[in-house]
Amino acid sequence: xxxxxxxxxxxxxxxxxxxxxxxxxxxxxxxxxxxxxxxxxxxxxxxxxxxxxxxxxxxxxxxxxxxxxxxxxxxxxxxxxxxxxxxxxxxxxxxxxxxxxxxxxxxxxxxxxxxxxxxxxxxxxxxxxxxxxxxxxxxxxxxxxxxxxxxxxxxxxxxxxxxxxxxxxxxxxxxxxxxxxxxxxx
Length: 186
Ligand SMILES: [Zn+2]
Prior knowledge:
By secondary structure, the chain is an alpha+beta fold. It has 2 domains: about 5-150, CBS-domain; about 155-185. The chain contains 9 helices and 11 strands. The strands form 3 sheets. It has a 6-stranded mixed β-sheet with strand order 1-7-6-5-8-9. It has a 3-stranded mixed β-sheet with strand order 2-3-4. A two-stranded antiparallel ribbon has the order 10-11. Helix 5 (about 90-100) packs across helix 7. The radius of gyration is 17 Å and the shape is globular. Bound molecules: zinc ion. Zinc ion (ZN) binds next to helix 9. The site of zinc ion has 8 residues, from helix 9.
């Protein structure tokens, strides 16, 4: 019998060696890098810290649909903050985060560094039903932040209150805030 999803860690399934680049790279260079490496995702770092993600879809939806020039920068089309999962979490939780956040790529983080990327396809390959189950779960738990927060996920970027970088931003009153600011706001 196949192993239960509870037993499979994301790091067993993720693709390794993520391409990490600066947001100053042009979309032309970014697209060329995807093609050359045969990959679909770039991680954007600033000062050695992950701040955003660009997928092949962003080139279509943002560059072409919005008529950006090829000299636009990756930071102009990246999704930020970046949502990540710790390396020792389980596939079932990864599927829930993807469903809830409506993302298809989930960077995997270890000691503050991105060590891999888990894609929806990686999960489907292991367990075709898991994404559908997670979507049901997401539907059932819409609006229940408390429940969702039991899943270990990192939301990384700059705090909208103090401007400091944090791996653990939380949405609070419409703003992404770091744990320290969250405490002082409550
Ligand atoms: Zn803050």
